[in-house]
Write a structure and sequence with these properties.
Helix content: over 70%
Number of domains: 1
Mean pLDDT: 84
Number of strands: 0
Low-confidence stretches: none
Radius of gyration: 18 Å
Shape: globular
Distance between the termini: 26 Å
Oligomer: single chain
Largest sheet: none
Structural class: mainly alpha
């Protein structure tokens, strides 16, 4: 791997790790960077999932005290998310690079819209749910269906997974942001781990590029612990919106 690519990936990993820790959305940086250095689309997605997973696992361990659900409920949802992640990864292995490249702009657009308008969507749906108490059974079925959909999405395409998972948790009625972050990381870990097994089995990981990105992500996540006390999250959020919108537009134009 050329030294210029190594430096580029390391820098992207550092920035992506910081962004993931502060607000989520680091894959909007790391995934396009893998494409930029010449990694094929499907391999870039698989390698990005692997690199991000280390941060998911370490974050889950750090926030393990925040879980309030029963162990049986956590285990059930974790297993469901793992199966969904495996289904999404399997679908990816059945997709050609050309087909996946064509889907990238739409997947990025979906994740970007959720990131920008997720809070308003959540507020609207919660308002509807509160006014329709008799629809609780239907709501529960829909929420579970959404969870399965989120898990499949995460196995197929890692970018935006944390943001979409937080949106699901908000719709599911969670209020405590620390618990939501802990659950987001737990489910992202199980989705990604199951997907990674299939990615390795199908030889989709580009190891030198992935390991360089992983090192940067871990360092960036650690540094973000200090930055988070000084940098207003609204600034980070606005920067991600600008970056994700620009990157999405680029992929639509570049095709």
């Amino acid at each position: 791997m050329p030294i210029s690519d190594l430096i580029t990936l390391l820098a992207a990993g550092l920035l992506g790790g910081v962004v993931n820790s502060l607000a989520g959305g680091g894959s909007f940086i790391t995934f396009p960077t893998l494409l930029f250095v010449g990694v094929p689309p499907i391999a870039a997605n698989a390698s990005n999932t692997f690199a991000a997973c280390a941060g998911y696992i370490s974050g889950t361990w750090a926030l393990r005290s925040e879980f309030t659900q029963s162990k049986s409920e956590l285990l059930k949802l974790t297993l469901i998310s793992a199966v969904g992640g495996g289904v999404g990864a399997y679908l990816l292995t059945q997709t050609s690079d050309t087909e996946f490249r064509g889907a990238i702009p739409w997947l990025l657009l979906f994740a970007t819209v959720i990131f920008i308008f997720g809070n308003q969507m959540n507020a609207t749906l919660q308002h509807w749910a509160n006014k329709n108490k008799h629809a609780s059974t239907i709501q529960h079925i829909l929420i579970m269906g959404l969870f399965i959909g989120v898990s499949i999405y995460g196995g197929f395409f890692n970018a935006g997974l944390g943001i979409i998972t937080l949106s699901y948790l908000s719709l599911a009625g969670f209020k405590n942001i620390n618990e939501m972050n802990a659950l987001k990381l737990l489910y992202s870990s199980s989705i990604s781990l199951c997907a990674i097994v299939l990615f390795i089995w199908n030889d989709l990981i580009v190891w030198p590029e992935m390991l360089t990105l992983l090192v940067g992500t871990l360092i960036g996540g650690y540094l973000a612990g200090h930055l988070s006390r000084k940098l207003p999250q609204i600034w980070v959020r606005r920067a991600i919106i600008v970056a994700s919108t620009g990157i999405t537009g680029y992929f639509f134009i570049a095709g």
